[in-house]
């Protein structure tokens, strides 16, 4: 527990009745309800589910999947890829995406939109415009969507993979065009400004798969330009094998110098064969089938536990998002916590044990002293105290070391 001391709080609770009289020598039950740390996953199928775009015979299948999802995670990423969100200019799928966001909101999850600006999956209709109009459309897209979803989605990956954006050459796209014209710093400044103006309370991330000093230097320049970056997003798609503790800690050290929260936004480990090391762009590895195996599932679970423990131990890391929940979603890779058939893989059970047992206070009984006091130690988050059927919730954090609860 010592390596996680920065995530643990101690509070003295004074328990009183509704009349304000301390409850002396009384038994109360306390259990954790939520983690402050964001344990998340992407879940793109919820768009069609929330809009009744699945067969009636499939509803039970998806409900089972989502129950497993919410039993473990408190955070979900939804896909705001512009080409899919607004395939026809002026016809965004706002209502459909709000339905999906409301589904997760009803289950108590924090929601993040991903991403607002990205060269990949930029709409093809941008290519019909000149650069000045492309820039205008990109900023208007941010103003519109961040405003429309404010209060429902208040966390966004504002720009994705900006390091490669100006030199991306696999195919023509409007965002690379404007990144070339404006320069990366100017483009990032403009999109973050638009997002912050649209929702001053939004939590805004920059996100990249490039974990080298090149990305760190870009962040340094952006912060010097007063770009309102709230957190640094780091992708760790480990299709070609687990990074290992040493590499992970080097990446963490590189980005810790900014003293900003770090979110590991896209994490994968496959439970089938490892992608060949000579593949430079993971998207180039397209095969008809990529099956999961028993040996691979055991390896995936073992390595995921090491990865989560390494990240959770670092004081600046505030979030870990897995990518994706079920096998086959991206590149047909067997990287999920479940198989395509909803079978729970060992990785699910191992991470569940970490999040909901090792890093969690399950129901525990306490007896107040003669003045109604008890001392509580646990991981930061939301807790519930129960006394004779009456419940009261409270936050365990690193502030207000003494609080009074009336039940």
TrEMBL record:
Gene3D superfamilies: Glycosidases (3.20.20.80)
Similarity comment: family membership: Belongs to the glycosyl hydrolase 10 (cellulase F) family.
Alphabetical list of Pfam families matching this protein: Glyco_hydro_10
Keywords: Carbohydrate metabolism, Glycosidase, Hydrolase, Polysaccharide degradation, Signal, Xylan degradation
Protein name, entry field: Beta-xylanase
GO molecular function, one term: endo-1,4-beta-xylanase activity
Domain of life of the native organism: Bacteria
EC class: hydrolase
Annotated EC: 3.2.1.8
Reaction catalyzed: Endohydrolysis of (1->4)-beta-D-xylosidic linkages in xylans
Transmembrane segments: none
Example of a GO biological process term: xylan catabolic process
